[in-house]
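Protein Entry — a single chain follows
Next Lines — sequence and tokenised fold
***
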Amino acid sequence: MTAAAPGPGGKTTASSGVPPTERLDRSALAAHQSRRLKELLGAIHGRNVFYTRKFDDAGLGRAALDALPFPDGLRALPFTTKAELVADQQAAPPWGTVLTEPVERYTRYNQTSSTTGRPLKWLDTNDSWQWMVDCWKAVYRGARVATADRILFAFSFGPFLGFWTAFDAAWQIGAHAVPAGGMSSQQRLALVDTIAPTVVVCTPTYALRLAEVAEQRQGARPLAESSVRTIVVAGEPGGSIPATRERIERNWGARVIDHHGLTEVGPVSFECWEGPGFLHLNEPEYICEVLDSATLEAVPDGQPGELVITNLGRSASPVIRYRTGDVVVRRLEPCACGRTLARLEGGILTRTDDMINVRGVNVYPSAIESVVRQFEEVLEFRSTISRQASMRALSLEIEVPGSVDPAPIVIRLAQRLRDALGLTVPIHVAPAGSLPRFEMKARRFVIE
């Protein structure tokens, strides 16, 4: 059933079958989700203090939950926000009241990356952890990663959930899982040379950082000639930003496969080999709504809205109608891969809390990155929002190689930013190596 398919740089990859649950028609999928939702609500009502209180406050006792129609009945369930979960943990430290099982049953600890505030502590039982691992197996199927692959995890393996579940999923599918935590970029590149991995898992930023370091090595084989044929990225929108994606693929001679998830939700979506630029929602395991963030009403297919998620298999630490803050455009047309799962066009477009109004113009970090990454000479960048009198101002710092004259680059980049954003953006050239580099989520959008 496995056949070779061409990849970037002449490298090949094995295609894999699509399981029946990812090929259900929409009515069969709805029936599947309805059954899973009722099982979840039945498992947590009366046992999970946080959600029992929320349901009772909404007038939803056990009988009402059992009789909840689907999908229309979703509207009766209360939303959950990160602010609520943070407040719950502050009121009942350290874990809060969102746990369904006795705390002695929990075996895994992770926390959010705290890029948008106080980190959330999150626990999992063996069962809920295995559910997330199984969700990651869907990511690997989409990426055509299988038993024969050797996967290098260029990840710190700290308390951030990151790629922990990806690592466990790798060895469970029979792949060779290689941890590369606690190593420098040079050491990780040496490991690529030595053990010849076929897959690298990291953030988009770190894939570019490794490419930058590889360029500085004397006498080493070019990165594009390495054994790596696939780079699975997550943690940032860069994997679905065309200019960022193209730069990674060109530098590595490998195919980029994007993925997105959240610590408190799990691995939600994945890109397939046949449909670049789209993220499949893992709908057999998640109920995914796309709503207007102001009215909280459903938006039509093809229109931007906020992604709201209910995870169906993590009953030990669930989230119900969780407002992710991720802005997406959903498409329901079937994919060439055979999956009938809804897809997110362009991945995660931005976040509702990332938008900053600068002189009457709404500015998003992803819009800046999509322009800057078109300039191969720009090694790293940082955008800063500052206040000048009563108005906000945007400025940009860039790094270029010492051998390159930055003046023409600044002129062209300023024009591209003006065309894309409708703003005149002052651009400053920073000394080589002075801007921070990142292994996990990058922080290139600074608000002073």
User: Anything to note?
Assistant: The two ends are 55 Å apart (CA to CA). The CA atoms of residues 165 and 216 lie 33 Å apart.
